[in-house]
Write a structure and sequence with these properties.
- The chain contains 21 helices and 19 strands.
- With 530 residues, the chain is an alpha/beta fold.
- Bound molecules: iron/sulfur cluster.
């Protein structure tokens, strides 16, 4: 595969003067002096390390991901439909209707109305700004949401006790309350994710004891990068506070030369980095025991797309610690701010990672080991991908994958809905949109009346963005029901590997799923002639 985007990527705001680029370098075949186009090399001559990141000017109102084609993704599988009988419901044409397909699930002991949940909305500005959108959207959809790492550490109002532990965080408290204000108390829940910095600040104990959360998630990494959370800080005073709290801040906001450069507009944002964890088996097992003693009812682990040996280590350790759930996050997903080269070139792409995890789980089951629930993340956007992932994790009416974790897609749904509601208020909706769907939220949100009826006077407190998240999850739910009904499987735990065929030899080789040409051929002749 040629590397034609090596010198121009929309993620980093770079482009190229000529289209017929060198397929190895991505540079114009002829590079000239009088070129004003900002390619990767050209822009780096001015902005240096900034060009490693998604456009800094968009930070806070954007998400980004890899744009590399890994040669294997969920589109390389086909869902097999059926016409004979029905499973999970009576084989009755009046009952085997797609709205009767049951898509509810349970993840790490938490019942959910849809097999998707929102994860990793941490200390990036986009996560903070759209928290209410996603949290209320998750609550009214009956699913889980996990605030990401560093929420307390980034809140300048956070209060610490004499031991440097968090004693009050208005921001974390706001996030929990936002979800709970629309939670039915039965489906989904809100937890707290903790990385190295959070553990240093005692965020876990604060969340369990003061905010009474039920879920703590330890974070080892994410598919988009493996070097800890990063955000941009546009405020010098805040950058200094964060440095004093022990964060790695670049450039040094206490250096007078740096301060002058910042004030002169040489650069507009500081980078704040988190440290990486150093997990080992014994300490992790002890840590999980300790979390349960502190009151954690559910312990989750979120890990990135590290090399296969680390996946084996993760499964082993998680099994010994008997954690409730692991989220594996494959390369190809999204982020608020990760280096573009890392997003594109590092880690295991989702389908390959999925195959490695499934191999591990089969081994664990054969050897009588405890198997935690699994959720997968890494570029999921629709019901067909979700269906394939859950089905391919199921050998025996017990899919290993209980749900799909998403961040970028629901954020996009929420951002879009919020933005269009703002445009409607200003009378500035695109004509092409308002002519088709109406100019008022009660017209263009197709779920508006249903939610208004359900929530009565409280409906006004639902942010427009949350209606967007709800509608998006509703589309996924109905889409899944249709696919399940097409396969005549009316319960989520019944969709299995037999329902999937691979469209390429590579997809088949990596996952062990037969190709479209092979599936059912062992019984084909007998059915025909028998
Ligand atoms: S600087 Fe050279 S390689 Fe970059 S866009 Fe201009 S001509 Fe092309």
């Amino acid at each position: 595969m040629s590397d034609i985007y090596a010198n121009a990527r929309s993620t980093s705001g770079t482009s190229i003067r000529r289209r017929d680029v060198n397929p190895q370098s991505g540079m114009c075949p002829i590079c000239i002096k009088e070129c004003t186009v900002m390619c990767e090399v050209g822009k780096s001559a001015f902005r240096g390390r900034e060009v490693l990141y998604p456009e800094p000017e968009q930070f806070g109102d954007s998400t980004a991901s890899s744009n590399k084609d890994y040669g294997l993704d969920w589109s390389h599988f086909q869902i097999m439909t059926d016409v004979i009988g029905a499973k999970g419901i009576a084989a009755d044409s009046n009952l085997a209707l797609f709205p009767n397909a049951d898509v509810t699930t349970e993840l790490g002991g938490i019942p959910m109305l849809v097999p998707v949940y929102i994860t990793g909305l941490g200390s990036t500005d986009v996560a903070r700004r759209y928290w209410d959108t996603c949290a209320v959207g998750a609550a009214i959809s009956g699913t889980v949401i996990m605030p990401g790492e560093n929420v307390c550490g980034m809140d300048t109002e956070t209060k610490f006790d004499s031991n440097g532990k968090v004693s009050h965080s208005a921001e974390l408290s706001r996030r929990i309350e936002s979800f709970r204000s629309f939670w039915d108390g039965k489906h989904g829940d809100v937890g707290v994710q903790t990385n190295v910095e959070d553990q240093r600040f005692g965020v876990d104990v604060y969340a369990l004891s003061k905010l009474e959360v039920n879920i703590i998630e330890r974070k080892w990494g994410q598919g988009a990068k493996a070097i800890g959370g990063e955000v941009r800080i546009a405020d010098l005073e805040k950058a200094i506070i964060l440095k004093k709290r022990g964060y790695v801040v670049h450039p040094d906001p206490e250096d007078p030369v740096v301060q002058k450069a910042f004030k002169d507009g040489e650069f507009r944002t500081f980078e704040r980095h988190s440290r990486v964890g150093m997990p080992d088996k014994r300490s992790f097992v002890e840590d999980v025991e300790w979390l349960r003693e502190q009151g954690a009812k559910h312990v989750f682990l979120k890990t990135g797309a590290y090399r296969p040996a680390v996946t084996a280590f993760t499964l082993r350790v998680a099994s010994e610690a008997k954690i409730d759930q692991i989220t594996f996050d494959g390369a190809g997903g999204g982020t608020g701010m990760s280096p573009v080269p890392m997003m594109n070139e590092c880690s295991i792409p989702t389908v390959y990672l999925f195959a490695q995890v499934m191999h591990g789980i089969e081994l664990m089951r054969k050897n009588g080991m405890y198997v935690p629930d699994i959720s997968f993340a890494g570029g999921f956007v629709n019901e067909t991908q979700i269906y394939k992932c859950i089905a391919m994790s199921n050998h025996d009416s017990n899919p290993a994958v209980k749900a799909i974790a998403m961040a970028r897609a629901p954020l996009t749904a929420g951002m879009k809905a919020q933005y269009f509601a703002e445009l409607a208020e200003k009378g500035r909706l695109p004509l092409s949109f308002s002519e088709k769907y109406g100019a008022k939220p009660e017209q263009f949100f197709v779920e508006h009346s249903e939610l208004e009826e359900k929530y009565g006077a409280d409906f006004k407190k639902i942010p427009p963005g949350a209606i967007g998240v709800y509608s998006y999850f509703n589309r996924i739910q109905v889409g899944l029901q249709q696919l399940m009904a097409g396969a005549r499987k009316f319960k989520l735990n019944l969709i299995n590997r037999d329902d999937i065929a691979a469209t390429t030899d590579l997809a088949s080789k990596v996952t062990g799923i037969p190709t479209v040409a092979e599936i059912d051929m062992d019984t084909f002749d007998e059915i025909l002639l028998g």
